[in-house]
Design a protein that fits this description.
This is Prolactin induced protein. The protein has 143 residues and is of the alpha+beta class. It has 2 helices and 7 strands, in the order H-H-E-E-E-E-E-E-E. The longest helix is centred in the N-terminal third of the chain and has 17 residues, at 12-28.
Amino acid sequence: MYSLHLLLRASPAALLLILCLQLGTTKAQEDTQQLMTMDLQMLQIDGSEEATVVLQVSTDLRECMVIKCYLLSNIPIEGNFNYKFTSCLCNNSPKRFFWDLQTNSTVRVTAVVDVIRELNICPDDWAVIPIKANRFSLTKNLP
């Protein structure tokens, strides 16, 4: 009972120290990591109908993820535009994917990255699947 009485008589300095420590740990626990960062570039060859779509994907997570990348468009496009790439994405190794396409009109292209569960992609099959989201997309127009 005596120790409880001492605990309740804490000095203002001790209470201030406890408050500062609590605020410091709360700020340190904020999640500032980017789950997925995507950059979609469309490179068109001058005077032709050929273009290259380049998708760069990276993450700030310490754990690796198995990703599947593919493109969608507002008009049908043939060729390697329909290829799907599966890869292991880790924070120290951003990935780049390339698609070549031919079109004679304006195309709206959406790059989609799905985080999937698939074996034999990441080393030792160590990979995570995020709880918040497992599909990411980015859309651009190709003139």
